[in-house]
Amino acid sequence: MDWMFTLVLIGAGLIAISILTSALAFRFGTPLLLVFLCIGLIAGEDGLGLMFDDAEIAYFLGSLALAVILFDSGFGTRLQTIQRAAAPAFLLATLGVLLTTVFVGIAAHFLFAMPWLYALLMGAIISSTDAAAVFFLLRAGGVKIYKRVRSMLEVESGSNDPMAIFLTLLFIEMILAERQTNVLISFITGFGTQMGLGLILGLLGGFLIVQIVNRVHLEEALYPILVMACALSIFALTGYLGGSGFLAIYVAGIVAGNSSMKGSSALRRYQKGMTWLAQIVMFLVLGLFVTPSEFSAVLIPALLLGLFLIVFGRPLAVLICLLPFRYDRQTLSFNAWVGLRGAVSILLGILPSVMGVEGANIFINVAFIMVLTSLIVQGWTIAPAARLLNLIVPAGLGPLERIELELPGNPKHELLIYRVMERSSLTQGGVELPHWARPSLVMREGRSMPYEYAYPLQAGDLVYLFSPPEYTALLDRFFSQLKEPEVSDTEFFGEFQVSPESKLKELLEAYKLPPTEGVDAELSIAEFMLRELRNNPVAGDRVRLGSIDLVVRRVHQGKQITEVGLAFAVEKARSAYVRRSQPAAVGFKEKLLHWFKS
């Protein structure tokens, strides 16, 4: 029985070490995936000598962990985020993955002298991006990315795994069948079955999860377990029927996360822990599975293939997919650069071994080297790239903690906790929180006191208050940052503010601007901007009007523009995403010419 204690000690010890070293990753901005993989490598065959070479168990554990991660990713994706980035993200998650597969496959064919099907399989394995790695590095770098760009990255990274898995399985099946004809027919029929079943069963499964949770009365602690069990059942059933279980569980997460569901606040907290555990287990298992001593045989061509993907493959795919949309070079460049490869690529590298492809070791070794190359080259440069491309939004402090409350009567309030900073206007006296904020408690030097006795507030105070979620952005104004922001409000949001209710013709007259073709001057400024932004505005959006830019400063509930800035130096605009007022019918050729001129 000693083996049992040894196994538990090793497993729990590796997880504990991974969690403790994640603090160093936050401190130095190191890609967290790289940390977990390195711990697995150190503990593995060429390190401390732990032997783990069962491809089926590695793939099973990795797939199970990925399913948990995808459900949480979908559960945390707001419908507004999907609406904001649906079309470009869908193209990147489907056509973009296919193009990346083709480009990398062509390079792999010549670098490794592989047959074409093997080369395309290599491209498919490495074709998906890693959302967790990207957003961890943005948090570690302390930067707040322009929301429209962040939404596209979030939706693409969360939804491109099913396409990569489908292509990998397709090429493996074709290799095993020794069939190199009818590639197009196999792709169309397989894609339709996998994605169609995945989407339908995901929508149905998400709806059933919501109905079950809302109708069944259980102990509170059982709801998160029930939801995760139902989600994994959807994943397994879809895969058993021949669909994409990964797409199904992601879609089920989106449906459940955007529905009114009992115990959703507790579920979100539970899923955070489950997702972290799933990521750690997946990365450790993948790190243990590979054998670094085998890398030398493929090191140079794998490094060259990784650099080709970073410099040519991903940028070309992004350019082709996003060129029909109204994105500038800054947005395109950032999306091209942050195509970080991660655990899914290594997981897919194991699949040829599981299915018995001849010479399968080359896939896992090359995938591992390419992922490490991506993490080292791109991982440490995401935040500097965002700064260089002017995609950082001035960050308000925001609450230290937001706690969703499920109270009798369903008032939909949150408990917000703020720290008062040294330069906050609240420390000066004469400035009070608005009456609707309802502060309930102030913590000062370890002592609690009512707000009225703590006034005026002091730097370092923790203020606890209840507020509806839509008012959180207004409360943020009263709490300023300790350090000076990287990007000033004036640089990003314009030199002046104008009333969004004012008529557009009043603005044109005030600044002696000529009428713009196709623009109704009787519209209010907010109505005009909403029309130009297709009723989907985010803070930082700019609309070009002659020699000035109208800038969205603040949005209420994702739909209503409540503050508008005005910028004159449009050629030095800090915001990358600038929409120019123009007739709706613009051809692809004109967009292509416009992009190269901008």
Automatic annotation (TrEMBL):
One Pfam family here: CorC_HlyC
Transmembrane segments annotated in the record for this chain: 6-26, 33-51, 57-77, 89-110, 116-138, 159-177, 183-209, 221-238, 273-292, 298-322, 334-356, 362-383
A molecular function (GO) term: antiporter activity
Keyword annotations of the record: Antiport, Cell membrane, Ion transport, Membrane, Transmembrane, Transmembrane helix, Transport
Membrane topology: Multi-pass membrane protein
Domain Transporter-associated: 489-570
Any one GO CC term of the record: plasma membrane
Keyword hit for Cell membrane: yes
Location relative to the cell: Cell membrane
Annotated SMART domains: CorC_HlyC
Any one Gene Ontology BP term: proton transmembrane transport
NCBIfam families listed in its UniProt record: PRK05326.1-1 (NF003714), PRK05326.1-2 (NF003715), PRK05326.1-3 (NF003716)
Protein name, entry field: Potassium/proton antiporter
The organism of origin for this protein: Nitrincola tapanii
Organism phylogeny: Bacteria, Pseudomonadati, Pseudomonadota, Gammaproteobacteria, Oceanospirillales
